[in-house]
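In this section we walk through a basic example: taking a raw amino acid sequence and producing a predicted 3D structure, encoded as discrete structure tokens. The instruction is simple. Fold the sequence below.
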Amino acid sequence: MSVNKVILVGRLGRDPEVRYTSAGQAVANFSLATDETYRDRAGERQKRTEWHKIVVWGKQAEIAQKYLKKGSLLYLEGRIQTREYTDRDQNKRTSFEIVCNTFRMLGGRGDGAAPSASGAGDEVEAPAAGHGEELGAASDVTDEDIPF
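The resulting token sequence is shown next.
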């Protein structure tokens, strides 16, 4: 048995860019920043930002384009995927990306999130995910819980 599951809470580094495959399926790409704080050897507080490449497919890609903006606070679930390619100088490269199957917009209306009845954000799950997981715990996350 193996598991490939990623859960991230972070802020969008740029607006989603949506393209369409030749078959007409939407695919959105954006970056998500997560921060980690730690103390160095001298006891000084340090902050490290990790940037994640996010890929969203289908209907939720269109929803991402409509509602997500740079700076939006987002909870997402997905899986890590590697992609190998050859760059312009003919060097082989490996890229890591998160293929998102569920996301939830966190924060209020002024945070770039879509309006919702609860004001806590909206959950969007890819039809292909099919696991129907409950994400209720995500609604308890506030801006105070996020280290950036």
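Looking at the output, two observations stand out. The longest strand covers residues 92-106. The longest helix spans residues 59-67. In the next section we compare this with other chains.
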